[in-house]
Amino acid sequence: MIKSSSEIQLDPADRMILELLQQDGRLSNVEVARRVNLSPPATHARIKRLEEEGYLKRYTAILDREKAGFDLLCFISVALQLHQMQQVQRFREIVREMPEVLECYHVTGEYDYLLKVALHNRKDLERFVVDHLTPMPGVARIHTSLVLTEVKTTTALPMR
User: Fold this and answer.
1) Please, what are the domains in the chain?
2) What's the pLDDT score for residue 107?
3) Fewer CB in 10 Å around end: N or C, the chain?
4) What is the mean pLDDT of residues 122-149?
């Protein structure tokens, strides 16, 4: 496995700190220090460095999608008619402004983009596809897959 230059800079203590914070971003500095077996000031300095170097992008709360009323999770593949930079940029700008879109990826294959979308129900899906995606300039094809069961969901990267 090829390691990136940024990955090589992480020592075991850094990796453990990142693993702990991925599991629970609300851990106190003292608790992280205890688990990593470092002093609190040394741990604080490492966390600050990891933030400054961009390893830690942000701290956030992860909501239960269904309890929040979003019963439908979909993956929507979108193919563009043309791949002119202006059209691609416009598509990306519009998608970034859509609160229903949790994630958007530019992908290879039959479709150009893969969207992960959270919606309240089937009617919400119809509105989203018919009123928002279909009329977007440059959209050629749309394919929607509904999630039946979430088998694994995580935001944590393997730090081992």
Assistant:
1) 10-52 (1.10.10.10), 72-146 (3.30.70.920)
2) 98
3) N
4) 96
